[in-house]
Design goal:
InterPro entries: PDZ-binding_CRIPT
Largest sheet: none
GO molecular function, one term: PDZ domain binding
Strand content: under 5%
Helix content: 10-25%
Subcellular location: Cytoplasm
Number of helices: 3
Family: Belongs to the CRIPT family.
Radius of gyration: 16 Å
Organism: Euphydryas editha (Edith's checkerspot)
Amino acid sequence: MVCDKCEKKLGRVITPDPWKTGARNTVESGGRKVGENKALTAKKGRYNPYTSKFYECKICRTKVHQVGSHYCQACAYKKGICAMCGKKILDTANYRQSST
């Protein structure tokens, strides 16, 4: 779960999505340009194992699989918070969730 503000920070994939509606990396949505070389233009979103820092989850202390996130997906879903910034997104008071 990621909030609208942090969704802009997520990386993009080089290949376009076959599911066009809702995709962020197609020409129609404005996420890609025609004839764009992603190897040259996507320096910011590219994965670099030497400079990327994988944090530990602030709740359960496991390694987070997404660069820039401070909470793992399981804890973010259980608490209803953004995995990157921790902002409350969803009210989980009436949800019946397991403790694992």
